[in-house]
Design goal:
The complex is a heterodimer. By secondary structure, chain A is mainly α. Chain A folds into 2 domains: 254 residues, no CATH class; 199 residues, no CATH class. In chain A, 72% of the residues lie in helices and 3% in strands. Chain A is built from 19 helices and 2 strands. A two-stranded antiparallel ribbon of chain A has the order 1-2. In chain A, a hairpin with a 4-residue loop joins β1 and β2. The longest helix of chain A is centred in the C-terminal third of the chain and has 32 residues. The radius of gyration of chain A is 21 Å and the shape is globular. Chain A starts with a helix and ends with a helix. By secondary structure, chain B is an all-alpha fold. Chain B has 19 helices and 2 strands. A two-stranded antiparallel sheet of chain B has the order 1-2. The model of chain B has no long low-confidence stretch (mean pLDDT 89). Classes of the chains: A mainly alpha, B mainly alpha. At the A-B interface, β1, α5 and α6 of A face α16, α17 and α19 of B.
Chain lengths: 487, 487
């Protein structure tokens, strides 16, 4: 089942690359494959037993002398992250079909390959396999931005790759050190390590991917120069690879002392990222940059939730549940906003606030969608983002009320930058770039956005659908169990 | 009556097959009409390489125990057989790449020399005695000197041949001098006999060892003995470069591994450090010099220097896992090297001028298959997933970490990070220039059809990607081969 979820998009990518189809047909084929992937995920959802921990496992030895295997499976939380992936990637592919990307076969093949790689990241239960998928995400992203991106794309890709690879290579060194000293690269079988350097190697990779302050140098250019649907995937989904990595590897596979030693430093970086990102988002001049920096801020908040364990290293269920819920919510919000930014750029040629404004009049669908997403993003009580942030702050309160206070303050900042975004686009005087020909959202565009917003509203109404189904067994206890069982 | 030694013709058969092929090609150059020469010679050389590879496969299969042949001048073991298989494969691919080369004269001689060089290498890797070592080295080197200078109408070819001759002879002389000193110190020529004769003439032995390492360093183009590499790789006919970069490196590194492990176990504490230092120098010089190259052949030449560094790490760790890592690494490296130079050759034949990064512009879109293939080779050199290069680097670093050489892992990881820049520069040049940025470099018309070259590239892609998925069988071969060394 899990293997099918990984292989379906990869196989579809090969088909799209090899079959000499015209552009539209390739896009349609890719979209069908992505929809099939959603169906497959829903089928898996019905088979999934949220009372169990690791399940839907497939395992096959890859090379035995170093104990590396193809080992995939889902935990409750990673299942939700995978669900987020298939939904956002499908919307992105749909957007690309609508925008009619040129060099279509290469493009859709890469998108499908990216989808398969991200699902792989969220299922990998072997360190080397995790690294393989983690790096495999980078390859299509590099080309997607470098070929189809904006005018400064070469600079953006160079920065992106240098940052990401610097982190990844540190992680590779850590993986080797971890695997060789444990005697296996399997995440389920291996014990915990007490080496702080190895821990830091992993954290470095995930801190770049998230990104955490001060590793966010690649963020703005990459999000601004990407095609909008790639930016949606990048900020909505790819950044969640860091969440999975931190939770599945950095927190669970290291000795309590190591994790607790670095807890304060990581929390400090995450908090700085939260506040600093929010302030930058408030100062940003266009929709994309606001979304980019708000993404960084939200990732800071999620990391705060992940590292809300107490001084004995006992994981905080509130914080973790909040982090996962917030990951899913932020993924959907960020994807919606980037797709909206793309649609605005199609109409006005820009997403700069100075040139926009007054778009609400006579464009009810656009106004409704943007307003709904924006209001959810600023965590109005009753929204899914509010639920997530509330859980995270409740979780971190146990560590120290100071963290919670700063976090709560940053949420006020979120309201400021989101309201500014909404007004800048919809209200005020009509901007110079807005012409009468800039029409309301078309049915095709609505077909892309409404499901995303619908999911956000659904989660707002029932956040427990995720929070009560993420951690039947907190992963560290499981690791402790495995350790106790091991001779 | 002189007593003749027992000859194990079976063990010699790969060498003899190539020598025979060389003879046929050479006779063909005089005896058959001119229009048949090229076909006959190429067919003979191709058949020779394939036969040698297959025969070496049989030798591999039937050499559980290592055997000394011909009064201890040669060894029949799996190490030599595996190296011969790789050389055979590389040679066969090089013949396919050579076929489309527009050469006015010396068709028969070209293939005869190629087969002769292959025979020398296959002989060289089985050497277990300082005399046969030198004999094999000169045998293939002389053939390569002539091959480099074969295109006498091209100034650069002559220059390359002359440079290679002078610097290569210097390297050979150093190796010979070192051998003489070792012989003087121990009174022995055989590798295992040198190891057994301990205790006398220590200083002489150490100096001899240093000179032997330097001599082999010249052939493996490891820094600081790499000065000839960029000039020769750039100037030689591209198909010769392809063969040299793959096969010479295999031969030189396998023999370096053999002589160091078999003959100098007592001096282990000296040569491991020396080799590690050479490895670091190669990584540093190769990678940093490659950053500023514009000519693709020069760039790949420096890349081959840096790969010599990675492989020397595997030798420096002096463990069974290290030997396994080296032997595995050689397989995707050889395939990627031949394939990359083959793609360069295709572009060169299309344009009729040396290929710089600028002249690669748009190549990926014009020739989709060759473009994707080049992308894959670059991924392999970078050590990114879905290529054997990734697994190779992983093994090398694992071996280094396991043996306690953590700092070598760090250096290797840093070198990999630097290397991304120039490998991605090739991809950038091929795919990411807009039409406006491309200065038209092509006279017009469709590129020359070259099905054999495309076949060679396809085979290289198959090995590069296949070695990623089929690690287990390859690593089993590497383990069997490494088992014939006394660790």
């Amino acid at each position: 089942m899990t293997t099918a979820l990984i292989l379906l998009p990869l196989a579809a990518a090969l088909v799209v690359w090899l079959l000499p189809l015209p552009g539209r047909a390739a896009g349609a084929l890719a979209l069908v494959a992505a929809l099939a992937e959603i169906v497959l995920w829903v089928v898996a959802l019905f088979r999934f037993d949220f009372q169990q921990s690791l399940q839907l496992v497939d395992r096959q030895s890859w090379f035995s002398d170093l104990n590396v295997s193809y080992h995939v499976g889902f935990y409750g939380f990673s299942f939700w992250l995978a669900g987020l992936t298939v939904v956002v990637c499908t919307a992105a592919i749909g957007y690309a079909v609508w925008a009619n990307r040129e060099r279509a076969r290469a493009y859709y093949g890469l998108m499908l390959f990216l989808l398969g790689a991200i699902v792989g990241v969220f299922t990998a239960q072997d360190l080397l396999l995790f690294y393989v998928f983690f790096e495999a995400m980078l390859i299509p992203l590099y080309v997607l931005i470098g070929v189809w991106g904006g005018p400064r794309r070469l600079r953006a890709t160079a920065t992106f790759v240098i940052y990401t690879m610097a982190g990844s290579l540190l992680m590779l060194a850590s993986i080797i050190a971890f695997g060789i000293s444990q005697g296996t690269f399997d995440l389920v079988e291996s014990g915990v390590s007490d080496n702080a350097w190895i821990f830091l190697g992993f954290v470095a990779a995930f801190a770049v991917k998230a990104p955490l302050f001060p590793f966010h140098g690649w963020l703005v250019e990459a999000y601004r120069e990407s095609p909008p649907e790639v930016a949606a995937v990048l900020s909505g989904v790819v950044s969640k690879a860091a969440v999975y990595g931190l939770l599945r590897i950095a927190i669970v596979k290291f000795d309590v002392d190591v994790v607790v030693d670095f807890q304060s430093s990581i929390l400090a970086l995450a908090t700085i990222g939260l506040v600093y990102g929010s302030l930058l988002a408030f100062r940003a001049r266009d929709v994309r940059t606001v979304t980019a920096y708000s993404s960084m801020a939200q990732m800071g908040l999620i990391v705060i939730g992940l590292f809300s364990m107490d001084e004995r290293g006992l994981l905080n269920e509130l914080g973790l549940n909040g982090a996962i819920l917030q990951s899913v919510a932020h993924g959907l919000i960020s994807a919606t906003l980037f797709l909206l930014a793309g649609m605005l750029e199609q109409r006005a040629g820009t997403s700069t606030f100075a040139d926009l404004g007054g778009l609400a009049r006579g464009r009810p669908a656009l106004a409704t969608i943007l307003l709904t997403t924006g209001v959810i993003a600023l965590a109005v009580p009753g929204s899914v983002a509010f639920a997530g942030e509330f859980l995270i702050l409740a979780g971190i309160y146990g560590v120290g009320w100071g963290w919670a206070a700063v976090g709560a303050g940053a949420i006020v900042l979120a309201a400021m930058y989101m309201l500014r975004l909404i007004s800048g686009v919809l209200h005020w005087r009509r901007g110079p770039a807005v012409t009468e020909t800039a029409r309301d959202l078309r049915p095709v565009e609505l077909a892309l956005l409404v499901p995303l917003v619908g999911l956000l509203l659904f989660l707002s109404a029932w956040p427990a659908s995720v929070t009560e189904r993420s951690f039947p067994i907190p992963p560290r206890e499981e690791a402790a169990q495995a350790e106790a069982e091991a001779p | 009556m002189i007593e003749t030694p027992q000859v194990d013709w079976f063990a010699l058969s790969p060498t003899l097959a190539l020598l025979g092929a060389s003879g046929v090609a050479l006779l063909g150059a005089v005896l058959v009409p001119w229009w048949l020469r090229r076909g006959l010679a190429a067919f003979a050389a191709f058949g020779g390489f394939v036969t040698a590879g297959i025969l070496a496969g049989f030798v591999f299969d039937r050499s559980d125990e290592e055997q000394e042949l011909l009064v201890q001048s040669m060894t029949r073991d799996r190490l030599g057989a595996l190296a011969a298989i790789i050389v055979g494969g590389a040679g066969a691919l090089a013949v396919l790449v050579s076929w489309g080369e527009r050469r006015r004269d010396h068709q028969g001689e070209y293939y005869a020399l190629l087969a002769a060089a292959g025979a020398g290498m296959v002989f060289f890797v089985t050497a277990s005695n300082l005399m046969t070592l030198f004999l094999g080295l000169e045998w293939f080197s002389i053939a390569l000197y002539i091959l480099c200078a074969l295109d006498t109408h091209r100034e650069t070819s002559l220059e390359a041949g002359l440079k290679y001759l002078i610097v290569g002879s210097f390297g050979s002389a150093i190796l010979l001098f070192g051998s003489a000193l070792v012989y003087g110190a121990t009174g022995e020529l055989g590798f295992s006999a040198i190891a057994a004769a301990r205790g006398q003439g220590k200083e002489l032995l150490v100096i001899g060892l240093a000179l032997i390492i330097a001599g082999l360093g010249f052939k493996a183009s490891a820094a600081p003995f790499h000065m000839w590499t960029p000039d020769v790789y750039q100037g030689a006919p591209t198909s010769v470069t392809a063969f040299m970069s793959a096969a010479t490196k295999v031969a030189a590194l396998v023999l370096a591994l053999r002589i160091l492990v078999v003959a100098f176990p007592e001096q282990e504490h000296l040569w491991t450090v020396a080799v590690a230092v050479i490895a670091v120098a190669s990584l540093a010089i190769g990678n940093f010099a490659a950053l500023v190259q514009r000519d693709v052949k020069r760039l790949l030449a420096y890349s081959s220097v840096s790969h010599a560094g990675f492989m020397l790490i595997a030798i420096a760790v002096n463990t069974e896992l290290g030997a396994r890592a080296l032997l595995y690494y050689l397989i995707p490296y050889a395939a990627g090297s031949i394939g990359a130079f083959a793609v360069v050759a295709a572009r060169e034949r299309e344009l009729g001028v040396p290929v710089t990064l600028e002249r690669f512009g748009g190549f990926g879109w014009e020739r989709p298959f060759l473009g994707v293939a080049m992308w894959i080779f670059m991924l392999g050199f970078m050590g990114l997933p879905l290529t054997g290069g990734f697994v190779g680097k992983f093994y090398v670093f694992s071996a280094a970490y396991e043996a306690g050489w953590t700092w070598l892992v760090i250096v290797g990881v840093a070198a990999t990070a630097v290397s991304l820049y120039y490998y991605l520069a090739v991809v950038r040049a091929m795919y990411m220039r807009t039409d406006a940025e491309l200065r038209p470099v092509i006279a017009g018309g469709s590129p020359p059809r070259d099905p054999l070259l495309v076949t060679a590239v396809a085979a290289s892609v198959a090995v590069t990607v296949g070695s990623f998925f089929l690690v287990q069988p390859l690593i089993d071969w590497a383990r069997d081969a490494a088992a014939s060394l006394p660790f």
